[in-house]
Specification:
12 strands; about 30% helix; Alpha-Beta Plaits; alpha+beta; globular; three-stranded antiparallel β-sheet
C-alpha cells in the first residue's frame, strides 16, 4: 500500500481532516480527484468507485478497513462479490455502531512519545499487522466485536497496530487475552 493511501485512509477512519496531492478527507468523506469515493453514514463506511474503476481508485478504497477489491477479467469484486461500483456499505467496525471518534478514542495522557498515543479501549498492540489479524479472529470467535486501528509514527518507531473493542466488552476481552497469553507460555 502506498504511503499516501495509508495516511489519507487513516485520517478518514479517525475522523480527521487531511489533504495530500489528489486525495482529501474532512473526516466524514473521502475524495479522490474531487470525486467522493467513501463516506461515514450512521457509523458505517460506505464506498463507491464514483464511476472510475481505476488503479488509483482501487488502491485508495483498499486502504480502508473492511474493503478488499480485486479485479478479474476486467470486473471488480468487493469482498468476493461482483461489484459495479455502486454505493455499498462495508461495516468495517464489525457491528460497533459509532462514529470513528467514538470507536477509537486516544489516551492523550499516555506515556507514548509525541502525538502518538494508545487508544483507550485497545486490548492488544503490536508492530505487525499479521499478529493483529490473529487476535481479531480469536476475539470474534468468542463473540467480541473488534475494530483495527494504527498509529503511524512516520518511522520514529514502527506503525503501532491496535485492536479496539466496545467499552462493554473491554474487561472480558482483556481477561480472555490474558488467559490465552498465559496458556501459550
Amino acid at each position: 500500500m502506498r504511503q499516501i493511501t495509508a495516511k489519507i485512509c487513516y485520517a478518514f477512519e479517525q475522523g480527521r481532516t487531511l489533504k495530500i496531492d489528489n486525495s482529501e478527507t474532512d473526516g466524514t468523506s473521502l475524495w479522490l480527484f474531487g470525486n467522493k469515493i467513501a463516506e461515514w453514514r450512521q457509523g458505517e463506511i460506505w464506498i463507491t468507485d464514483a464511476g472510475w474503476q481505476s488503479k488509483t481508485t482501487k488502491e485508495r478504497l483498499n486502504g480502508l478497513g473492511g474493503v478488499n477489491i480485486v479485479q478479474r477479467a476486467g470486473n471488480w469484486y468487493l469482498n468476493g462479490n461482483f461489484w459495479q461500483g455502486e454505493w455499498t456499505s462495508v461495516n468495517e467496525n464489525n457491528g460497533i455502531v459509532a462514529t470513528p471518534q467514538e470507536v477509537v478514542q486516544f489516551d492523550i495522557t499516555s506515556e507514548w512519545k509525541g502525538n502518538y498515543s494508545k487508544p483507550i479501549y485497545s486490548v492488544y498492540h503490536t508492530h505487525t499487522e499479521a499478529e493483529i489479524l490473529q487476535i481479531e479472529f480469536m476475539l470474534s470467535a468468542i463473540g467480541i466485536p473488534t475494530t483495527k486501528t494504527y498509529s503511524d509514527t512516520d518511522g520514529e518507531y514502527k506503525p503501532n497496530h491496535f485492536i479496539v473493542v466496545p467499552v462493554a466488552e473491554f474487561e472480558r476481552a482483556k481477561q480472555f487475552l490474558t488467559k490465552v497469553s498465559l496458556e501459550t507460555l
